[in-house]
Design brief:
Layout (H helix, E strand, L loop, with lengths): L17 H10 L1 E4 L3 E7 L7 E4 L8 H17 L8 E7 L8 H21 L3
Parallel strand pairs: 3-4
Antiparallel strand pairs: 1-2, 2-4
Length: about 120
């Protein structure tokens, strides 16, 4: 019997402290796409991938920042099983995302995920 996959985004799958974000930003491997910048760092102690989102005021007002975060969270939540376990990931939206449609953003997140997968296979991060 297969158990249904939970579509929640629990705390265990999020980066929560400033120290975790800073560690990934300083020591992580950078992967870019048209609308996003992804930083990834290995964390062998974790049983699953953990996501952090940074959308600063430089990106835009609260409405724009929250839209970007919703898109990123939803993509991570629905594609969580494709992301290898034991990694910390921080995603930063680029200014160009504000002019993009949701479909364009989703397609770009797919490209970012593919680039992250290639980076993980090509290097020991």
């Amino acid at each position: 019997m297969l158990l249904p996959i939970s579509h929640r985004f629990p705390k265990a799958h999020r980066l929560l402290t400033r120290g975790e974000f800073v560690a990934v930003q300083e020591e992580g491997h950078k992967v870019t796409s048209r609308f996003f910048v992804g930083l990834i760092q290995a964390d062998a102690k974790q049983a699953h991938a953990r996501l952090g989102i940074t959308a600063t005021r430089r990106f835009g007002n609260a409405v724009a920042r929250n839209r970007a975060k919703r898109i990123i969270r939803e993509a991570f939540r629905t594609h969580r099983l494709q992301i290898p376990r034991g990694y910390r990931i921080v995603v930063l939206p680029r200014i160009a995302l504000k002019r993009a449609t949701t479909d364009e953003a989703w397609a770009d997140l797919e490209r970012l995920n593919a680039r992250i997968q290639r980076a993980l296979h090509n290097e020991a991060i």
